[in-house]
Amino acid sequence: MVDGTLPIERQPRPLRYLFLDLNSYFASVEQQECPELRGRPVAVVPVMADSSFVIAASYEAKRYGVKCGTMIGDAKRMCPDIAIVKGRHPLYSGYHHRVLEVVEKVLPIDEVCSIDEVRFRLLGSESSPEVATELAKEVKRRIRAEVGDCMSCSVGIAPNAFLAKIATEIQKPDGLVVLEARDLPHRLHSLKLTDFTGINRRMAARLNAAGIFTSEQLCAAKREELFHAFGSVVGERWWYLLRGFELGAETHDRKTLGHSHVLPPDLRHDRGCRDVLVRLLGKASARLRKEGLWTAAMAVSVGGIRRGWHAKTKLPPTQDSVTLVDAFLRLWQERDFDGPRSVGVTFYDLRETGEFTPSLFDPTEERSKLSHAIDGVNQKFGKNKVFLASVDRAKDTAEERIAFNKTWLFSEGKGDNEWVDTFRGASRDANA
User: Fold this and answer.
1) Contact (CB, 8 A) for 391 and 279
2) Among 5, 21, 189, 217, which residue has the fewest nearby CB atoms (within 10 Å)?
């Protein structure tokens, strides 16, 4: 909190947060599981096609310039010896849960921020630089000893959670950086603007337009200058955060739910797109029902190499698969794309059960009961024991994957997302 009775530079800002960022997480898990990959450049990919892209790269691959988002064909040219590995998301989720078990032996977890990021709150004597540093070393030691010696991490310690996360960017891999109040904000000057959480290329361009091109200029800007640069009170929050003050957390309501999928080469045609989109609709609507949500708007898209297509429609609030597929097939009649490579479906205007009055003339409520019954059968007897006939050709595509800020895998039925537990020698649910 900010104390208005003291000059800003004299206000107390003790160390309050320890932030853990697992280095090159997906690639590190693959190297841990497969000894033959250790020490080699590794790229984890969604599909084995040169036109797809890298979703994680080992540090050996990063030395050749391969990074997240690099096209697979380009990665092979940049690093001819690179090992291309198809992502195994249940495995990554399983390792995630193992990491949580291990680190909580050292400190209680304050928040699981993503599949490879965990935040801890420092209390009492833990706020001293010496104790906080020892705790960080113990977290790193236990991960290597109890999860795997390929599993390195960077740890940041700072007066607020924002800076603790930023501190992990200062030294990678296997870093440990402490940002005390006396280090702020000058210790941040070495970073690029895009190293700061919340500044992507578009926001960086906006800051450039306001005359801010470096981190030093960002840190030196006055509160009112940051307000205008960011275009909102967010800029003022940044002024305080950069100086180590702890502000109340911002809250964000759930606005959308959806799935996307990079098409394998054999499905990159009109019929393949339609079948996989129907599959994604069934998967996303099952998530709606699991979370007690209804959607009143839906968008579908096809990403094309030469031309993409996007369509959106409003709906009476629904959560059943049949209604959503019917709406999609009406949109599909107007499709116009060329060279399809990916597909996606997104539900908007989400509402919880009880937040609306169902129409007396719309069958979606009764259909929802049927969909819930099908979900129950699949959870009891196995994924895809019962499914819509229209999804038959694509029912085994679009497996569940870890997305940004996601730490779990949605299960569509008994046995879904199981993995071989390296630590215990048995098959386990990735979310257990």
Assistant:
1) yes
2) 5
